[in-house]
Design a protein that fits this description.
By secondary structure, this protein is α/β, with parallel strands linked by helices. It has a single domain, classed as Transcription Regulator spoIIAA (2-Layer Sandwich), CATH 3.30.750.24. The chain is 36% helix and 25% strand. It has a six-stranded mixed β-sheet, sandwiched between helices. Helix 1 packs parallel to helix 2. The longest helix has 13 residues. The radius of gyration is 14 Å and the shape is globular.
Length: 135
C-alpha cells in the first residue's frame, strides 16, 4: 500500500511481524508527517515486530523533515514490541549520512544503516529475529 508516495507492507510470521517501508524520492515535512499515521497503523498487532526501511531512492530529504523522522524513530523504540530495525540506503551516501546522524541524535546505533536488504536481514537475525530465508 502507498500513501503520499510512501510504500508500506507487512508480513505476519508465527512469532513476529516484519514491516517494510519504502520512502519516496522527495521527502517533505508535511508529507512525512501525514504518512506517519499509516506507518504506526502497522504496529496494530499483538505480535512483536521488526522493521526494514528502504531509503535507496531518496534524492531530496527536507531539513524540516529531520525532526519528524527522529520523533518516529524515538517513538518506535519506545514500543517494547520492537525487536529490531534497519535502514537500507544502497549507494546513496547523502541518505546514509543523514540517517546515521539522525540515529545518533536519537541515541541509536548508526550501523543500523546498511547498503543491502541482506545486511538488513542480518541485523534482524543478529537481534534474534527469525527472518525466513528469501525474505
Amino acid at each position: 500500500m502507498t500513501d503520499r508516495g510512501y510504500g508500506f507492507s507487512y508480513t505476519d510470521y508465527a512469532d513476529f511481524r516484519l514491516i517494510r517501508t519504502v520512502t519516496p524520492p522527495i521527502v517533505s515535512e508535511d508529507r512525512l508527517s501525514i504518512a506517519v499515521w499509516r506507518y504506526f497503523s502497522m504496529y496494530e498487532t499483538d505480535l512483536p515486530f521488526a522493521v526494514i526501511s528502504d531509503y535507496r531512492g531518496v534524492v531530496d530529504f527536507a531539513e524540516a523533515a529531520i525532526p519528524v523522522l527522529k520523533a518516529v524513530i524515538e517513538k518506535s523504540y519506545m514500543d517494547e514490541r520492537l525487536l529490531a530495525a534497519a535502514w537500507v540506503v544502497g549507494d546513496n551516501a547523502p541518505m546514509r549520512d543523514l540517517l546515521r546522524g539522525v540515529l545518533v541524535s536519537a541515541g541509536r546505533d548508526p550501523d543500523l544503516v546498511v547498503a543491502t536488504d541482506a545486511e538488513a536481514v542480518a541485523i534482524l537475525r543478529a537481534a534474534g529475529v527469525a527472518v525466513p530465508d528469501g525474505t
